[in-house]
């Protein structure tokens, strides 16, 4: 439970509630999501999902064209791009700490129809 709360707190720091619902929908339905922007957490967030077995969340370094740096997004039809908040936060979370079942619990709560 503590991990799920920490995960939710972390997501609250980097995404709006609407973005979290979109992210959950995309993860659940295997729609590619690219995280971009000058805020912190893109690589860590992509790593959290990847380590839990979800391979459809990408950070800018996962994109083929890196000339835009943190603003890189893949040029692939159907990819959803979510911009990370540009606010600083002090929540630290390990990408390997979270298990797939914790992310699935979050997905069930957040997914939109």
Main attributes?
single chain; 113 residues; mainly alpha; three-stranded parallel β-sheet; 4 helices; 41% helix; 9% strand
Separate helix tally: 4
Count up the domains: 1
Radius of gyration: 13 Å
The proportion of residues in beta strands is 5-15%
> How do the SSEs run, as a string of H and E?
HHEHEEH
Query: Total number of β-strand segments?
Result: 3
Summarize the structure.
This protein has four helices and three strands.
What features would you describe in this structure?
The protein is mainly alpha-helical and 113 residues long. The chain has one domain (2-110). 41% of the residues lie in helices and 9% in strands. The protein contains four helices and three strands; from the N terminus they run ααβαββα. It has helices at 2-14, 17-28, 42-51, 100-110; strands at 33-36, 57-58, 80-83. It has a three-stranded parallel beta sheet, with helices on one face. Strand 1 (33-36), helix 3 (42-51) and strand 2 form a beta-alpha-beta unit. It is globular, with a radius of gyration of 13 Å. The relative contact order is 0.26. The model has no long low-confidence stretch (mean pLDDT 79).
Blueprint of the fold:
Elements: H1 2-14, H2 17-28, E1 33-36, H3 42-51, E2 57-58, E3 80-83, H4 100-110
Parallel strand pairs: 1-2, 1-3
Helix pairs in contact: 1-4, 2-4
């Amino acid at each position: 439970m503590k991990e799920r709360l920490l995960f939710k707190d972390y997501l609250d720091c980097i995404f709006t509630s609407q973005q979290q619902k979109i992210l959950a929908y995309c993860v659940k339905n295997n729609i590619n999501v690219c995280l971009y922007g000058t805020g912190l957490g893109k690589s860590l967030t992509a790593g959290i999902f990847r380590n839990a077995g979800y391979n459809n969340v990408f950070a800018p370094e996962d994109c083929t064209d890196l000339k835009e740096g943190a603003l890189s997004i893949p040029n692939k039809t159907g990819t959803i791009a979510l911009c990370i908040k540009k606010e600083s936060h002090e929540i630290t979370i390990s990408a390997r700490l979270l298990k797939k079942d914790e992310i699935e619990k979050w997905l069930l709560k957040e997914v939109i129809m």
